[in-house]
Amino acid sequence: MENSEQTNVLKGVLASGGIAIGKAFLFEEEDFCIVPRKIQKAAVKKEIERFKDAISHVKTDLSNTKEQILKTLGKKHEPLVDAYLLMLEDPILNRDVIRKIQDDNVNAEYSLWSTLEKVTQSFEKIDDEYFRERKNDVQEIGRRIMRNLTGQHRKHISEAPPDSIIIAHSLAPADTMMLKEHKISGFAINVGGRTSHVAIVAQGLEIPAVVGLKNITAVVNYGDTIIIDGNQGLVIVNPDQQTLENYQRECEIQIRERKELEKLRDLPAETTDGHRVSLACNIETLDELKSVLNSGAEGIGLFRTEFLYLTRKSPPTEEEHYEIYTAVAQKMLPYSVIIRTMDIGGDKLAELGFEGFTSEDNPFLGMRAIRLSLKYPELFKAQIRAILRASKNGNLKILFPMISGVDELRQAKRLMQESKQELMSKNIAFDEKIEIGVMIEIPSAALTADLIAKECDFLSIGTNDLIQYTLAVDRMNESVAHMYEPLHLSILRLLKHIIDAGHNAGKWVGMCGEMASDPTFTTILLGMELNEFSMPPLSVPRIKKIIRSTSLIEAKDLAREVLSTNDRAILLGTIKKGVIV
Predict the structure, then answer these.
(1) What residues are labeled active site?
(2) Which end of the chain is more exposed for a tag (fewer CB within 10 A), N or C?
């Protein structure tokens, strides 16, 4: 597979881990030539019907895709297509396109194109990564409708030879679903992020993928040799022979390692000298529970509840909360489940019908998470009551996000106490000793962790936000993303301070940020005496292997050495020495 062309290494966003090697197959976008075409007044009604028919055809296609996704990936991926179907029902899309046809007497294609331009521009102004990524979904829906209007057809995945690497501007979930069936090795696309639908599907299919490459379609030619390094978010175009051979060996190693790691599933996360820690999982939906149980994890360290608020027009009811929490509690017995209360922004509540929210210049520092819960106590208490009611069915714990200090924690606890009183007045049973935890992800909380730990049952460190808030680095901003450094001495010292503060108060400390699933930091965190590591299910076996391959004494020595140096070169050398692969 050696290629004489010049090697090109592109850095994108890691969407799905693993390594894939193959020949490039360009899955190119349609070149829609959209121009305004005037129509007669008498033809307006017919043009609107043509637009409605196109939407109807897309709905039918998506319903078929939904059945395929459910069959192949399971119910947990059903919301991917449901989100697309909801977009087709969106009154803004339907109303604005139809109004433009009526007011300007122009063809449906141009009305659709100009409406989509306005919608996607508004998405680009949103700071929240999840909602910003929905711009690509809106564009994909627009292209589907446009194909029906123009009669154009996109290439089919089946046209790609087996073992190909798909190179495209974007992929729809339906396209991604076909990759496994047609034995595609991996893919790389211009757009998308870690939370994009295509990334989620790729992870479910375990297909290596890199997204957010911006211009890979302009760099790659048909037949180029491509390496997808989904572990590092790299795409190597026309690698030299040495690089190619290195990656081929890496592929073989990963296959062998996967088989070896499977043997650890039922073994504890225990060091060679008998120190035991807990490995738990981060999940977003009930359908991930099977992966959790198969991974060898001992519980759920972070159950994100934001999915309950997405793709809907009103807040979830207490009963809806209760049903979900009861199901997860029962399925995870005897293990515990830590449920994080809603961590959404004010813009999402505006979509759910709550008034008074305006666009925020910096939503990361705005009205979100616990701040929103305290602003709308009844919304918060409905979720708390549901968790309390479900607690009688399993081992549940409650986690408050984005707490900035003791005062906010006390306010949240007061509302929780009110919720308990309301249930007791109705003779509704719940676990009266349910544990309360605080997510330490703001520097102010980290620096006062000793005070916070005295008033809760456990601490959970959210390293993703803690790092970017401490270093003043937006990790989604390409200009400064390289400065997002978990190994910055200030971060390492802050982590040690939080863990010690928890232990001094007699409380256990966990971590649910990305550092917990990165093998680079496992031994250091072990040496800092972190009690629980919570991560995606796929990461559990590798982290367990590292823990079972070292002693607590060695880990403590490494942690002390790392914390005592301010020389980056020495720091990296010390860490590399302690990493077990």
Answers:
(1) 197, 512
(2) C
